[in-house]
Design goal:
Blueprint (H helix, E strand, L loop, with lengths): L6 H9 L5 H33 L6 H51 L2 H6 L2 H43 L1 H7 L3 H38 L1 H6 L3 H54 L4 H13 L1 H28 L21 E8 L9 E8 L4 E5 L6 H8 L7 E6 L2 E2 L5 H6 L1 E5 L9 H6 L7 H10 L3 H6 L17 H15 L3 E5 L7 H15 L3 E5 L11 E6 L2 E6 L1 H7 L2 H7 L1
Parallel strand pairs: 3-8, 3-9, 6-7, 7-8
Antiparallel strand pairs: 1-2, 1-4, 4-5, 9-10
Amino acid sequence: MQSKFTKQRVKKFLSYYRPHRNIFIMDMFFAALSAASVLLFPLVSGYMTGEVLTNWNGGSFRKLLAAAAVLVLLTLLKMVSNIIYAYFGHAMGAKMEETMRRELFAHYESLSFGFHARNSTGKLMTVLSNDLTNMTEFFHHAPEDLLMTVIKFIGAFVIMLGINVPLTLIVFAALPFLGIAAYYTDKRMEKTLLENKGHLSELNEYLEDTLSGIRTVKAFGKEKEHLSRFQEKNTLYTASKCLFYKLEAYFYETVESYPQFLSMMVVIFGSLFIARGDLNAAVLVTFLLYAGSLSEPIRTMLNFMRLYEEGKASFIRFMDMIEIKPTVTECENAVSLENPAGDIAFNQVSFHYEDSNENILENLSFQVKSGQTVAFVGASGIGKTTVASLIARFYDVSGGTVAIDGIDIRDLSLSSLRAHVGIVQQEVYIFNGTVRDNIRYGQENASEEEIVNAAKLANIHDFILSLEHGYDSLVGTKGIMLSGGQRQRISIARLFLKNPRILIMDEATSALDYENEEIIQQSIDKLKQNRTSILIAHRLSTIQNADRIFVLSDKYIAEQGTHEELLAQNGEYARLYQH
């Protein structure tokens, strides 16, 4: 990760304006119009005091009315301009945020399992919500604020030069020192903001983790311990925020004092010039009006600096995420897997995770013929689930090949591969919604008849009908309204709808009681028919009828055969079975 604002990232940032360039141009036009109207206001006021009121004559009243009319028009122009650029600017920012949110969400989905294993949901949500919101404000306000500040400062400087050069140079002499102070404060604010956002991510990570496991927290009576840890992270976040506010207060006070400093310089040196006869009172009033009018662009600049720092820090974090490359990608000429027979072959497969150089599997070779049921057994952590993950290509092999119907799965499109692979896991995820929505997840265009039939095959139909709203019943977040067995049967109903050629059962019944296991086993037996099935189980009673059983031990297959053959060998499988 680059973790900085590079030239490449600046181009990426500017690219989000391109689809909305017409709105952007209009936004900038009315922002400039608003700034120009503010700039002309003191000039007209100076004309009223210097030309009309000082030299009152028969035509002065008419001139006074004309000047007043101009002031009214300038005020109306500013109001209309502000309304237009405020609305269209905010709308543009919201649309840009929508684009970035969609891009980031799609990127999250494209990233490999290893990325999601290393990054919590809370951290990812912080970038997707908090950071993108900060960027929206920056996208909209920053260009406007910068343009208006430049117009007002340069315009005021040029107009004041035209009125009196020496006094203008004197009152603007402090501007370079203000710029230097702003630059160094900006650097410290940037560093502090990045730290602050890091602490916020950690806080959200811990919050998400604790609330997701609240049942476990309460069951073990660990509320105080979790509160203590939460408060530690909360304190770090608050401390970094307070430091930012300290720097911000120093910066804001320094910059906001500048208009008062200008007015003081105008009064002191203007009075000296008047005493020498080089200046009149009307010009002094005009200078004072311009000095006072600079307070608005000063506040605008302060707003720009705040938005710049927050938006820049957020964009850096956004780009840090966007620039992470998926470890599992399609090749350029990926082919589609159509109507596969379901033959699976591992050829000298080795595998290790990204953060480790130690192989979990090493030179692993085996074949599964179409329609066969094979099982993998072995101690926990030996690599059984890894085998299943490699078949679905959740991870890429470190060496060797995994092939389906003789085709290296790295040459297949991911969508077509996974369309023909169905997985039932021990931990089933049920989405917040209705029972029907969760079953239909296996096939979005499934008819009502197909959904009901899938539920019947999964032995869950009668239970669904017993619910108050039947298939329209809400299941709650993560299916909290359902038992483990019910969640498992809904996941099996999904697979009946998906109808995959290759079926992977990853310890699907290990967390269930025997009654639920028996019901679900019946559903699994129906699901296995005419499919290539990979079973991963701790309970050896569920795999005794497998066509072949592979016993994993220390990175390779130690034994293989049928249940009876392996018992006769009196080896590792027999020991596991007896245990």
